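Hey L., structure's done. Input below.
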Amino acid sequence: MMMVASNIRIPSELRTSPPRMVRLRGGRGARVFGVRIFMLPHLLIGLAAAVILIGEPIWLFATPAILGKVTSMQTSAGRRGMQHEVHYTYLWNGRTVTDQSRVSTAAYQQLQREKTIPLHAIDIGGHRFSEVDVSAGQYAASRWFLWIWAFLWDGMMLLVLRQPRVARRLVSEGAAVTGKIVDKSTYRGKSARYTLRYEYAPPTGGTMGALTRNMTVTRGDFESVAVGQEITVLYDPNRPSNATIYEYGDYMAG
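Output:
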């Protein structure tokens, strides 16, 4: 069971035995809703990338190929080096379709104009998509950077999605202890980010000692607190480094 550290400064709503009731802090509803709206297109981008990067190789390597004919080939300089593009035609439902796709350097070197090539084509919602049939190695050579990007992007989105759940769980089940603000920082970029650095000492009975963590807060909270000021820290006794400042979080007990 997650116990509450005995301290006269701990808010009364945190003295109840966990799990506690959790609700949005007053005035934070619009902020939380705005963050969710902002995150929605980013999540959709990550989801689309995951679907494409999983579904495309299944489509390319688990479906039969059809024949097409190369009509032209061209190479251009791009940000990631030379890019090779192949234009071709193929029959689809009795009609001749003209399309194009990018291929790796190895695949490009094996092609020539008027050559018959194997293709994979699919119709999704009336839109046709096609790709030149290549080996697994050639496919990987042309997609590795997308896999890395999608992995990093989706990982970042998962971390962002996890933060509100962690904050709610700490309010519901976390142990409370008095901490202290030890530093304040403002980071300027496209928008300002206000960060509080705080210190707390979980009474774990071990030799861990004081821990120091950072928390991003609103401008109003940032300006209202002073270095050296005491605050209430909620932490996970099973993982004391997982913590949050109770007064400046989006959620509260009660």
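Confidence is low (pLDDT under 50) at residues 1-8. Residues 12-44+153-253 form one domain.

-- N.
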